[in-house]
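In keeping with the milestone schedule agreed at the kick-off meeting, the structural modelling team has produced records for the first pair of proteins. Each record is given below as a sequence line and a structure-token line. The laboratory manager (R.T.) confirmed that both were archived under the project's standard naming scheme.
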Amino acid sequence: MLRDSDFKEIDLGDKEVFDKYISKKIHDNSEFNFTNFFIWRHHYKLNFSIYENHLCIIGQYRNTFPIIFPPLGAQESGFDNALMALVEYFKYKGYPVIIKSITEPIKEVMEKSLPGKFKYKHDRDMDDYVYLSEDLINLRGRKYQKKRNHINKFLNRYTYEYEPITNDNIEECLIAEIEWAAGRPKDNGIEEEKVAIVEALRNMEALGLQGGALRINDRIQAFSLGEVLNPNMAVIHIEKANIEYEGCYAMINQQFAKNSWSHLKYINREEDMGIHGLRKAKMSYHPIKMIKKYTGHLL
């Protein structure tokens, strides 16, 4: 049985452990990625343990109930034992058994190995948006006319330079994010996002991230961070831009895809978290597919 002492907080030195159990060959869920677990570890109170050769992660966001993530391992063998160990641990602690971020393949494994034990509900707010890289780069066709218009306005109004994020400009990106966050209304979500972005920028090399930035009037006005999620797909963790520069978001989106991810077929731009404006923006880029996710409840 799992006990409190079996779990530990996530730190940067755990990347090798996570990478061992999170198979880049099979997962296209943006959440199953060390960077996401690491930069959000404090806000989601994430802890992990290794059980039956599976990575077992639990968390809790603000005042909600604690949650379980599906056990992650290179093989199905041991999955059911690891999952049931987490279930028994939650029952022992008196928590309701809630399993988040269940993708279609994991749902199939759960139904096969533990039939009839869980009910599943589609969690639309957490579905990942996946695009063809060539679509985000070329923006061809009538459906991307508005995006091309945004970029053309940007090009007509501003003189810019695109540059990769390196040690030479990371501090400028940090300063830009802190200034932008300070100018927005006080909100827990904004503060949490700022901390996550600072974590990502401060640890870019160790996390294996790539980044790109737009410089206008000798200042960083937009930047984006991402990495390879699997052999065919990149994942974009962060995208920030100064909205005072019209078309800035469209430009960093297109330029980062072009300069960093043209060799990969797909780009995963993560979920919209149920935020109306974010959903509208992500749908406007016409995803080629969605990575559906479910929440599981013990029956």
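The second protein of the pair:
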Amino acid sequence: MIGLWCAATALASGFEVAQQGAVAGGTGHASVARVTRADDPGAAEAAQAWANPAALADDKGLRLAIGGALAAATIQARSTDADQSWFTETEPTLATPPHLYASYARGRWLAGISTNTAFAGGVRWPADGPLRFTSIQSAPRFVRIAPFAGVRAGTLQLSVGAHVDVGGLRLQRATDHVVEEGLIDLDLRGGVEGVALGLSYKGRTQLALRGWADFDVPAAFAAQLPDQGVATTWMLPDRLTAGASVQTERLLLLADVGLTLWSVNQRLRLVFDDPATATVTQQNAWRSTLAVRLGGEVLLGPVALRAGAYADGLPEAPPPARWLSPTSPDGTRLAATLGAGVGVGERVRVDAFAEHLRIGVRIASGAEVPAAAYAGFATIAGLTASVALR
């Protein structure tokens, strides 16, 4: 039997999308301890529906926010094998993770919903490049829909909710048949099997994915590898974040520390419908990681100026060096952000941010993966429009 697969995910620090609003984006995505300013109509805090919905229990009525981010990333790889010399980089892609938030606060009560691309990624290596037999494309994408409710009791604000995740996984790689090459293309989709509840905690989600395996192989191998259905189970991790803030009349300082339990991703099993096609098990052995985010905001009349920085994937990125591969060329992220927002009238705000991210160099050490060193960078820009309606 031909060895079929490689595996699973993409980009860095797992495949979590931190870019969930231009307000937080300008302060390095630190937002868990952001509080509503007394002189703000409330639109600027609409994106708290994702970061900390309890902060919206402030009697400021209906708030809506819609936005997105443009992210262009490049991962580079070079050989570390003394007997080979090659260099390659991922093909240009432009990701656009959107977000939509709505909440209503009256008196001390709160209800709302957030919809966003909470986990996503994507790496696409050249189809004729040196890594094609390990991976050409790996692209997970999952949308999270999270209704919530909250209450304010004095200075204490609490919220509770559930979330539902839906999405899919696309995998491609070339196959080596000595004198010819083939192509395996897997496209799997699915929805949540269970939901999780939390306060400041966002629980794990297990998804059953099912799709189609397209084997484009030489005729001599077609009987062994027929096109067929394929299934797997995908686990999205638990997230626990703590935040702190210091606020004066015009200055706001924010700090977040987050723990993501990537250790739920220990292996990936691809089960094919045809009993003659062997089940493929990919060992991942991912580790849980920390993220530290720092940011500040200054108010100049109706204009807010923001700056921030963060490190994600501490102390090391999720996959160990033994399993570091072109499907998940993970490294620690170091990033800096700038942002600004302006009020339009008394109820509307427009916020924007820009971010530059570097992915630290990591070297694969396992015998089962290509001998390579990986590094990368990304440029991201986002925009959010918010409205507060009493």
